Amino acid sequence: MSGVLEGYESGLIYLCLPIVDNLEKFVAACINGGVDLVQLRDKDADAKSIIAYSRLVRKVCHDLGKPFILNDRVDLALEVEADGVHLGQDDAPIQLARRILPKGSIVGLSTHSPVELEEGNTEQVDYLSVGPIVATPTKPGRPGTTLEYLRYAGQYSQKPFFVTGGVTPDTIPQLVSLGARGLVVVRYLTQSDHPENAARALRSALDASLDKLG
Prior knowledge:
TIM Barrel; eight-stranded parallel β-barrel
């Protein structure tokens, strides 16, 4: 299991964010509050902007000992020396990512259904994402997969998986009870006026929920 994912059973918080104001300061605050991985995902940015901002975020992540993942673009992930790439169902094939990126790179794959999860179990990926369990503006037009899909993943995923959609301190106990150990967070952090405190609240809720499981 690659790098930080070795801590999966102890709970991981995965920040996924677009290009935002004061990006470097924001990412540092989130990591200081308890974020374990950072992914830059901006569907509207051009390649030059993605490269420029990826290099900024990568430096912050590496200075603080955390991996940086780039969404979708295997070519740009190679260019900026990202620690890995996250791919959707319609993105470049996993095999291509493995050929292009350095050995040991982290590769993740989005799944939205039991069929996709079962296929993901057979792929050369380090982790899967599961969801969004509720509809979210970060994925317009995609309906929520519901908690039943999370329950299914908790039973049948052979890979570490990260649940997406509606993750907050209040929802974490239920997500953990259904098998989640990794949480993807977008709006709870990006819409916070105090991202470090928000990240600490997520970490506290995750740690407490896992402690209850023994």
